[in-house]
Design goal:
The chain is built from ten helices and no strands. It is mainly alpha-helical. Keywords: Signal.
Amino acid sequence: MMMPAALRVAALCASAHALQMTGRRRCLHGLGGAALMKTLAPRRAGAEAAPTPDELKKLTLGYQRMQTLLKDWQKITGGSCGNAQLSKEKAQVVATNGGALCDASPLVIQEYIGYKSINDPLYRSEKLMVRAAPLLKNPDDLDQYLEAVNLWGQKIQMSSLNAYTSAWGEANPNGSKAQVAAYMQEAKFDVEESADLLKRILVMLGLPLTA
């Protein structure tokens, strides 16, 4: 997959080496021309500082929290009876008929992917990842890294959207608990894929998976 030009150029020109050799403006012109200069104009002159160790630690903490969410999915998202265990037969009846089921808490998912509070470790994580591009263990991984960052942004956005839709699924016209459960399952798939992407990003940056 071809990465968005602006994202690639921003990461390349954020490196100290590129700035030392050519200067940010010449770097941008050399890599993308005037059109990309317009695209990246809001970034101003001078590279954004590379993330500090404390900032990078947020990615590891965020990954750990996502693993906790996936491990204890039912407990965390199950609302007032998250610990309740339904038999396969009962769960099938509920899903088929939209029968009574404990009220779920899908919006809690947003707390684990950086969409709830500025205090969440993964808040604005995509921007942090772009700033971290010059810190790659292997500079040749840049395209692969930026592709993972791009997909990460898409997946967590879909996770948040499905969580929000699930929260209102039963209140919508023709809504049902079965629809709520379906959107919750989609959100879980997106969180699983997001966690895999975040793991790849951490590995390419040489960051630990546990704090």
